[in-house]
User: Fold these one by one.
Assistant:
Number 1:
Amino acid sequence: MHSGTTLTQFIIEEQRHIAGATGDFTALLNDVVTAIKTISNAVNKGALIGVMGSLDTENVQGETQKKLDVITNDIMIRNNEWAGHLAGMASEEMDNVYSIPTKYPLGKYLLVFDPLDGSSNVDINISVGTIFSILRAPVPNRAAAKEDFLQPGVKQICAGYALYGSSTMLVLTTGHGVNGFTLDRDIGEFILTHEDMRIPADTKEFAINASNQRFWEAPVQRYVAECLEGKTGPRERDFNMRWIASMVAEVHRILTRGGIFMYPRDTRDPSKAGKLRLMYEANPMSFIVEQAGGKASTGYERILDVEPTDLHQRVPVILGSKNEVDVVVGYHSAPKAE
Ligand code: FBP
């Protein structure tokens, strides 16, 4: 049975313990949550409101945009631009920083988001999500420039994701652990249902897109090969594999029962350090994973310590159960086989 505690109540009570809290952050989060509820409705209604399918436009990543990519991006913008909490926004679906229209006041926070994660799954009714991260604006109440966003993940003050699955959930951290809330559509409120989520340190479940195997680097080749050898191999236990192609769903599974998720660097395009984006995929998910007792690495360094150089930069991602991440990271620093 759930606590009946609403997300709004939970955040207000949490903020009471923060010296100097003004209520601004709570109000900003409330606007983000309103956007997420609106997106949940659109995703849930799908073909009923004609939002399935692709557009013939491409985003800055060079990906064909889904109708819902653009619609969800707009919903995030419209719900967060007016209230005076933000100095700027940045999104997977927009080339440049979104400047707050001059008719609205400027605030002290920056909002970075992936409005529809896993969008390749939206037309086939598999779980998708929204990922967001909140940073402080280096200069409050001044229109933010791109450089203002380029802060390492350790600077995040809040990170969260919404999962539009069999139920709509919101999982977030403000640096005091990780909590999950389920949307009660009857009252239109997120209710605390998953308190203090913790990732088990060990796991027998790995997630990677195996179709890219021939492009992986040696440490990941070795790790996955050993998992596949199972009991007969050096790991002396069998592993199971999962791949949903929605990072939000993979991370939620890991927060719920453990596991390791990898989208490593590969040799397909040497100019790209990976597929997933640092600012609005890797950083928010790494903050959540670490706050739940897990680990998140590029294979070579802690993701939250990566110094961003661009809004849309990509990084290798290896995250989840800490002892398993340690194994993969260990293989990256092991001397190369002759
Ligand atoms: P977007 O859908 O936001 O572009 O996110 C990227 C993503 O879909 C992740 O959610 C997922 O983990 C990965 O790409 C799937 O990649 P692939 O299609 O190579 O399996």
Number 2:
Amino acid sequence: MWGETDKGVLGQPLGAGAALEEEAVGKCPPQREEGAERVTVGKFPEGYFEGLTREGGSREAKPDHLARDSSRTITSFSRSFVVANTSYLGHCHRIVKGFAMCLPWVPGYVRPAVRARGVKCEAMERIVVTDVVAEARRALGERLLILAHHYQRDEIVEAADYRGDSLELSRRAAASDARWIVFCGVHFMAETAAVLAKEGQRVLIPREDAGCFLAHSIDYPSLMELWRVLSDVMDPDEEVIPVAYVNTTADVKAFVGEKGGACCTSSSAETVLRWAFSRRPRVLFVPDQYLGRNTARRLGIPEEEIVVWDPRFPDLDRERFARARLILWRGTCNVHVRFLPEDVRRVRRERPEAKVIVHPECRPEVVELADEVGSTSYIIKTVTTSPPGSVWAVGTEERLVSRLAKENPEVEVFSLAEVPPFCSYMSLTRPEDLGAILGGLLSGEERNVVEVPPEIREPARLSLERMLEITSK
Ligand code: 13P
Ligand code: SF4
């Protein structure tokens, strides 16, 4: 039945020369409503779609919509395109070469349709992105750099030039001369790259809505409010140095830069906090209270010298700040907060041979019980360099954990949590999103450019450059 259509998607005969050139190169697992919906790919005669215009906005990927949109694609890419003899793209059993060329229109039609049906096609997406990435690399060469954070989907990480933790990716971005940096991660990461970008460089993010729970927990006005409260009991400009975790927006980084402070990442928090304490008697650490407290414990700062500021319930006991050495913002990562001390105890009971390694965004009670703590890259390095037969319970985002397990069969790796947590923001970026950005570049269109106004960029850059300088010594 597959590919037996002799009708064009507009119901016109294909005519001679329009025989479908199918080649199955991938398979999806069967999904709901067996045989109900299909996608085929083929080459149609030149000019077949001439005169048709793009028609957007439909929630349903109707055949005629696909065809009309394909006309635009065909002119900019190739005559290979998707033929849909179906109403939806939610069910494709076979993937046919050439589909990748149609990618630029995919998000507009396929995604809503697929989401509406609640089905996905990982195999299709992987093939799609592989072909478009190869095409983009051929056409753009060194002008293109693709970066991916470790929490990104496998298909995205495989497509990237580099994968890394936040610090490594910031360094890569800062050192790069590429014209286009496509940042597959969450928004603050791409924004960091945009702040560090050289003249003429453009940073593009496949999903502009990829936020971060920590970055959302703080904003510039509430940071100003805290500074004002502090000024009731001290001169904060003299006494307090702010340190911002990179998981913040550029305006928060700009505030920190203006006040003489620096940014840090999970792998540089200890070094940056030491630097900060060497400059002023008190440190304001935002927004991750757990990273701040875990790092303070490593530095030997006693509990009674640490206070937490909750912007939702401003504490009226301002004198407390005068006694504090470290002021923490009450932010947490909703992913890492899911690991509990009970998880560590359970693993110790059930798998006494396992070592526990966690990210420093985890609760201090979890970090205290763990054997190792460190950034995403530290976790990967520690596990991959451990002797064969080692067993690891890992307390960080699940995509990293399952990839680590898959790529290192000589060690045993599993999540510390019984129900492993995913970062829903990191998961937003699908191959089709990366493909849309690259497809745009191939057709001369820069999509989803991350821009930071100069009055924010300059002070934000100061705070980031300080971090890079402090951590390069
Ligand atoms: P890393 O810098 O360790 O990669 O952490 C980034 C992050 O967002 C962790 O949740
Ligand atoms: Fe932000 Fe947490 Fe996701 Fe990291 S895991 S990007 S801190 S929400």
